[in-house]
Amino acid sequence: MIVRIMGEGQVQVAENQLPALNKLDDDLLAEVESGDQDGFRRTLGALLDAVRSAGEPLPDDSLEPSELILPAPEATLEEVKAMLKDDGLIPG
After folding, report:
1. SS3 70
2. Which of 5, 58, 71, 76 lies at a CB distance of 3.0 to 4.6 Å from 62, suitable for a disulfide?
3. How far apart are CA 21 and CA 90, in angstroms?
């Protein structure tokens, strides 16, 4: 799966990494819904770090379509809330 982190670029993440990423996404969704600013900031950072660690960066000149777009690290709770779907940022 190709994942774009806004403002950073794209990484190729293996499908077997998705369960761990979905757990962080579920936590992020709960924190956004409850308005937990500190938890939101911590979990967004953990989610983006997990994607970076699990993924293989694509070259900057690569223009592959992204299957998933994640917010930038400095995104606000309100910005992320606008990006969320019923099951979070990561489908499944």
Report:
1. strand
2. 58
3. 8
Structure tokens at 83: 């990006």
**Residue 14: both structure tokens together:** 């293996």
* pTM over 0.90, yes/no: yes
Q: Which of 77, 80, 72, 84 is nearest to 9 (CA)?
A: 72
Which residues sit opposite 85 in a β-bridge? 88
At 84, the pLDDT band (50, 70, 90 cuts) reads confident
CA distance 92 to 89: 9
C-alpha 24: how far from its chain's center?
Answer: 9
For residues 10 and 57, the answer to whether their CB atoms sit within 8 Å is yes
Confidence of residue 70 (pLDDT cuts 50, 70, 90): very high
> Which of 78, 80, 85, 79 has the alpha carbon at shortest distance from 47?
80
Q: Give 81's contacts (C-beta < 8 A, 6+ positions apart).
A: 32
Contacts of 57 (CB under 8 A, 6+ apart): 9, 10, 11
